[in-house]
Amino acid sequence: MSYIYETMYILRSDLGEDLIDQAIAKYQTILQENGAEILATQHRGKRRLAYEIKKQREGIYVQVNHRGSGAAIALMERAMRLSDEVIRFLTIKQEVPETPAAAETDD
After folding, report:
1. Half-sphere exposure of 63 toward its Cβ, with a 13 Å CA cutoff?
2. Which of 4, 17, 29, 62 has its Cα between 20 and 30 A from that of 91?
3. pLDDT by residue (tens digit) across 33-58?
4. Which CDD domains match (predicted)?
5. Stated pTM of the model
């Protein structure tokens, strides 16, 4: 069964533009190779962090909306956990609006 997910991750601010683009492409490739469909990717830019994370005061925020299975997300999150370029990540499952056929009730 496939759901819609939103993944937000923060990359180190000292990465160059080429490395940022490579990191974004790497995580999108992991998702796509495991059957996920990328719906949208937003490069949110460099922001100041609320508190220091791994000796970093700023980070580059990236948001990816995708549809797929939990297995694809587990593989992507494992790669992020092992990576030095990602300092924090979070994936949430989005509420999917009910279809009209599912919303009908028998009276």
Report:
1. 9
2. 17
3. 998 999 999 999 999 999 999 889 99
4. bS6_chloro_cyano (cd15487)
5. 0.82
